[in-house]
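Troubleshooting log. The previous structure file for this entry was overwritten by mistake, so regenerating from the original sequence record. Sequence copied from the archived sheet and checked twice against the printout by T.R.
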Amino acid sequence: MIDAVGFPYKGAYTVMEDSILRIHTAEVYPEVTIVNRTPGKVLFKHADGYVIVCGKGLLKVSTFYKEQNEIFTLSKFRIRFK
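Regenerated output below.
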């Protein structure tokens, strides 16, 4: 579940390297076996987004926005969100 996405909230967000990223488009991704399950870890890059490990399940985030409303893409693969 992505919390705080409706009015009057600013939307769901995560923190990466001291920057706030708003999650604009996301969906549940089918579960896969993960040996070292660490929430926030980018598991792999999908054709139209990034699959991120959650405490329970996986989430594919297709679009991130920085605070200035610019579309953000990850510059490196080994990233962990807080």
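The first strand starts at residue 13 and ends at 16. Archived copy saved in two places this time.
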